TrEMBL record:
The keyword Chaperone does not apply. Belongs to the YbaB/EbfC family. The lineage of its organism: Bacteria, Bacillati, Bacillota, Bacilli, Bacillales. This is Nucleoid-associated protein AFK71_05255. GO terms for cellular component: bacterial nucleoid; cytosol.
C-alpha cells in the first residue's frame, strides 16, 4: 500500500512539473488581434499583459473618438479570448477527467 502511495506521489510531481513547463511556455507566447479591418491591432503575451497597440492614422478622427474606443475594446477583448482559449486547451490536458471547477 505504501509503495502505491509513493508511486502516485512521484507521478503527481511529474505532472506538476509538466504543468509548470506548459504554463511557462504559454506565458512566453505572443497573441495578436485586430479590429476594423486591421485599423487597430493589439498584441499581448500569455500573461494577459498588453505589450503593443497599433492604431492606423486614418482611423484617428477627433470627431469620432467613440469609434476608435470601440475598435480598441474589440481588439483587446479578442486577444484576451485567444489567450483564454489557448490556456484552456493547453492546461486542460492535465485536468481531463478530473472534476476541478475553477482550476484554470
Amino acid at each position: 500500500m505504501k509503495g502505491n502511495m509513493n508511486n502516485m506521489m512521484k507521478q503527481m510531481q511529474k505532472m506538476q512539473k509538466k504543468m509548470m513547463k506548459a504554463q511557462d511556455e504559454l506565458h512566453e507566447m505572443t497573441f495578436e488581434a485586430s479590429a476594423g479591418g486591421g485599423m487597430v491591432t493589439v498584441v499581448a503575451n500569455g500573461k494577459k499583459e498588453i505589450t503593443d497597440v497599433q492604431i492606423k492614422e486614418e482611423v484617428i478622427d477627433p470627431d469620432d473618438a467613440e469609434m476608435l474606443q470601440d475598435l480598441i475594446l474589440a481588439a483587446t477583448n479578442d486577444v484576451l479570448k485567444q489567450i483564454d482559449d489557448k490556456t484552456n486547451d493547453t492546461m486542460g490536458q492535465f485536468t481531463k477527467g478530473l472534476n476541478m471547477p475553477g482550476m484554470f
